[in-house]
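REQUEST ID: PR-0412
SUBMITTED BY: lab tech R.K.
PRIORITY: routine
TASK: structure prediction, single protein chain
INPUT:
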Amino acid sequence: MPKKDAVAVISMEEDANDGLDTMSRDDLSMPFFKITQPLTPEVVAGDAKPGQIMNSATGDIYETMEVVPCGYEKQYLEWTPRESGGGLKAVYNQYDGPVLLSSCMKNDKGKDVLPNGNLLIPTAVHYVCAWLNDIPVLGIMSMTSTALKKSRRWNSVMTSIKVKGAKGMFTPPMYGYSYSVKVSSETNNYGTWFNWDISMLKPVDDANMYDLCKKFNQEMKKGAVQVKHVNSDSDDVPF
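STATUS: complete
OUTPUT:
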């Protein structure tokens, strides 16, 4: 009698990345890790609570993350006010931005307004690799308003690290250490909001993670990583 057909064996590992290798970063949605504020749409809809960390690409919510910083840029974003239609008009670098900033006037919310009526928002852009559910996820932590103070402190911590090497003391690359990222509440005379809470964890000891973060750093420096900012007044701290 004829032999039964052998059971077909599927080996996805042998075909790893097949069909995905033609995609560049321009074809993917680079996640933004943002803090949910009381008026964030997902909070209003009941899908999240204020004071959580959200992955903008997936909608996943986290209470804390382990993050390796991979790169940093200071940008100045020109936005059309929402009442005038909204939308990103231009992105200026760390050299052109301050020149434009000197021409701004403050509005009643303390934001910088250009002579043309648009807003100019100083923005700290941190390129990071977050370790989420045992998977490394490349993304952006964009900081404005009161979060700029958190960004400056984080940068100061990174530049102050000193390690003893064969040739003496040296400052390791920013992707040499991981950090705990959480959210904490802050209050002033105008109200309460949520802000980043970042503290150093440990040196990166996984070679694959180190290489991934180093590559992300190099891609950022070459301009291969496109940051697509999305404005949402409900995510901003209004004071």
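NOTES: The chain has a mean pLDDT of 86.
REVIEWED BY: pending
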